[in-house]
Amino acid sequence: MHPFKSHLKELDLPIKVLFTGYLGTVAVGYFFALIQILFTHGMADGKFGLSIDDIVYSYYGNRSGTLLETKLNGSMKPYATEQERFALIQWTRDGAEQSEYASSGSKKIIETKCVMCHNADASGIPNYNDFSQLKAVTEQDEGATFASLIRISHIHLFGIAFIFMFVGLIFSFSETASVVIKSTAIGMPYVFLIADIMSWWLTKLHPMFAWLVIIAGMGMAVSFAFMWFTSIAEMWAYRYVFVDGLAVHYHNIRKASAKKLSLDEQTSMSAVIYHAAKQTVCFFIENGVKPLISFIKSKINK
Questions:
Q1: C-alpha to C-alpha distance for 170 and 24, rounded to whole angstroms
Q2: pLDDT tens-digit readout, 117-142
Q3: Which parts pass through the membrane (predicted)?
């Protein structure tokens, strides 16, 4: 029995507008979140587009260089010229000494190109007006810090869980999918969300878990897309798509096929396909394979 008395197609117009407005807004938000990932994690290796190296550099780090060097060759590459990046990297590799900060030209580059964002008013990123914080990013690149992982983990767990709760609630009024499929679709985003958060920590410990980050992210996206499209279709196109359209043609084809195969009209489509395939194979064997074998045997005997 359906847990709700009403289905999406039976809701009043104001409720449909409310649900559609929410689904449309979170879909736009999801789209911008993907773009934000491309311009942050997707630039970690200096190339546009998300790759395994991007995930590894973001969480495990590029242990062959410093954090400042990784950023200058990655997500911060567009914000400085090649000469400026070379000067900063050279100063970093020479030990990033404060005595050579001004004479190397690094101070002027930092003040011109970096402190507009990396200042005391910015939160979550180092303040380059404070040399001790600048010095910290000239150490070996070990990826995301445990403090930053704790901060973004609890934000994502709370925020994304709320998004999927309301998307799942709207989707639970649907009737197109079976109870098993519907329950799976509602529950899977939470499984993938926890797997996604855990994969960040695991990748921080070892780069081989970078694949898990991408798999978990794709799982959430697929679950979201399925619930989103099903909910929108049932609210605004249910009668035409599922009742007066595809469903009617589906049952007409099933009944006509069952009748041609001398089966009961209530036979399921899977059984109809099985019997049709069986008859096709038998026909092919009787009229194709066996005559061919007989012909080959006659030629061999001659």
A1: 13
A2: 887 777 667 777 777 777 777 776 66
A3: 20-39, 155-173, 179-202, 209-229
Distance in angstroms (rounded) separating the CA atoms of residues 224 and 26: 10
In 161-176, which positions are buried (b, 16+ CB within 10 angstroms) versus exposed (e)? Answer: eebbeebbebbbbbbb
The Cα–Cα gap between 23 and 180 comes to 23
What is the rounded distance in angstroms from the CA atom of residue 184 to the CA atom of residue 180?
A: 6
Q: Are 261 and 272 in contact (CB under 8 A)?
A: yes
Q: What angle do CA 76, 78, 79 make, to 5 degrees?
A: 70
Q: What is the pTM of this model?
A: 0.60
Residue 25 CB neighbour total at 10 angstroms: 10
Q: Which of 287, 264, 285 is nearest to 275 (CA)?
A: 264
